[in-house]
C-alpha cells in the first residue's frame, strides 16, 4: 500500500518511488525504473550484468507550489560480448536537459504566456534553460503552424529597440508575422518565400519606400494602398506643431489649459460635445492662427469623405492651395508626403480598406515588452504569434472538380466502378488565418500572455 501511494505521487508508470521528502522549498523524490535493461546499448547482446549504480537528478513538474527533483537510482550495466559499459536510458525523460518530457512541454507552453524568470523560479531551473527550451519549441511551432497567405496584406511597423516589421491579414483582422526589421531586403525575402503570394490582391502600408519597392518587385499584381490613418495622423502632427508654437506667448495657466485641451483640437468637429465645442471656440477665437490650423486639419480629414478618387484629388488640390503662408512650414511634411505618394494614397478611394487594428495592437505589444522587462525580439514575436487561444481558424470544404471526376468515371472499367468510392464531400480542411487581433488584445489586457 505504501509503495502504491508513492508511485501515485510521481504518476510515472515506468518508475518505482522509493522515498518522498520535502523541505521548505522543494520536493525530493528517490526512484528507480521498474525494468532493468535487457540488452546491450551498443551491440544488442543480452549477455549483460549489473555494474553498479549512480544517482541522477531529473527535474519534474512543480507540485503543491514547490519545485520537484527526482533522484533516480540509475543502473550501470556491463556487456560480456563487447566489453562495454553503459547506463540505462530513462523513460519519459529528456536526457539532453535532465528533465521529464512533461516538464519540458509544460515549460514551453507556459513560456508563451509568462515571463521566463517566473517560470524558472517556479521550476527551480535557470532562466537560460527556459530560454533555450523556448527557442527549440518555437522552431518546432514554425515548422508545424502555417498561416494562410492574406489576400489583403497589411504592412506596419513597431519600435522595439529598433523598428520592426508587422505583417497583418487585413481582411481577417489577424497578425501573421513580426519581422526582425523593415529593411527592403528583409521584406523581399519574406514575400519571396510566401506560399501563394500570387493571390495577394491589396497591400495596405504606411509611407515607407522599402515596403513599396519590395512589393512592386515581388508581388507586382497587388495594388498598393497607403493606410488612411497614417496620412491623417500627419495632419494632427501639423496642428500640434502650431499649438506648440503658441506656448511661448501664453501665461503658465494658459499653457496648462492648452495642454489639457489638445485632445479637443485633435478631435473631429462633428464628434465634439457641447462643452468641448465651447472650449474649442474659446481657443480659436482668441488665436486666429490656431483656428486656421484647426480648419486645415478638418479640411484634410474631409478629403477622405469624398465619394470618388476624382473628387478627392480636387479636394486635395483645393486644400493645398488654401494653406496660408504662415502655416506652410507646419504643414510642409504632410504636403510633401502627399505629393510623393498621391497615386497610392488615392487608391484608397477605389478600395476603402484600412490597417487600423494593427495600430491598436502596437501599444499593447509595447506594454507586453515592458511587463517582461525587455524580452528578446524572438521571445516577444513567439508570444504574439503562437498564442493558440488567439488563432482565428475556419473549417472549409475542399474544392471538388466534378468535370474531372466525370471523365475519370467514363473511362473507368465496370469492375473498377463497382468498387470505386468517390472522396467524401463532408471532409473539411482547417485554415489558420493567424492571430486574431481582438482576441490577442483581450489576452494581453488580461495578462494571459
The biggest beta sheet, please? 7 strands, mixed
% residues in beta strands: 15-25%
Across the major sheet, the strand order is 12-11-8-9-10-14-13
Structural class: alpha+beta
In DSSP terms (H or I, runs of 4 or more residues), the helix count works out at: 18
Outline type: elongated
Helix content: 40-55%
Number of strands: 14
Q: CA-to-CA gap between the ends?
A: 43 Å
Summarize the structure.
The protein is of the alpha+beta class.
How does this structure look, described?
The protein is an alpha+beta fold. The chain has four domains: 1-91, no CATH class; 95-144; 228-349; 388-444, no CATH class. It has 18 helices and 14 strands. It has helices spanning 2-10, 101-111, 116-123, 127-144, 184-192, 209-218, 228-246, 252-260, 262-266, 274-286, 288-303, 309-321, 332-346, 356-371, 377-385, 402-410, 414-419, 437-445, and strands at residues 15-22, 27-33, 48-63, 66-79, 85-87, 93-94, 99-100, 152-160, 162-169, 174-179, 202-205, 223-226, 391-396, 429-436. A seven-stranded mixed sheet has the order 12-11-8-9-10-14-13, with helices on both faces. Strands 1, 2, 3, 4 and 5 form a five-stranded mixed sheet that branches. β3 and β4 form a beta hairpin. α11 packs antiparallel against α12 (309-321). The longest helix has 19 residues, at 228-246. The chain is elongated and about 100 Å long. Mean pLDDT is 86; it is low at 405-411.
